[in-house]
Write a structure and sequence with these properties.
108 residues, mainly beta, globular
């Protein structure tokens, strides 16, 4: 990834107040910490949990604001900071959902 490509487009939630809309923004691309991967997302989805978080009615899943919501995705690992992982490595195509957001699954 080049220095010119260190930002990503995101829909950002700034408030849980009724009537608040997502803000379309360019945000800094985070680097993965130890034990994490960075995924280039090809597709993502919105699910009931995202609606509940947006409305502020999911106390078990309330991110600190501002936040980028979403846990369902399909993509490819582009950076890998895990020590070793037998299931999936760099350039692996994967999907993840809210139940397994910390575990990548091979799709191809």
């Amino acid at each position: 990834m080049t220095a010119l490509n260190r930002q990503m487009r995101a829909l950002v939630l700034d408030s849980y107040e009724e009537g608040t809309v997502f803000r379309d923004a360019l945000i800094n691309l985070p680097s993965p910490s130890a034990g994490q991967v960075q995924v280039k997302i090809f597709a993502s989805g919105v699910n009931p949990i995202d609606y509940k978080i947006r409305q502020g009615i999911a106390p078990y899943a309330m991110p600190e604001l501002p936040a980028v919501l979403g846990t369902d995705l399909a993509g490819e690992i582009v950076a890998d900071r895990r020590r070793r992982h037998r299931l999936c490595s760099r350039r692996c195509r994967l999907w993840s959902d809210w139940r397994s957001a910390r575990i990548a699954r091979i799709i191809g």
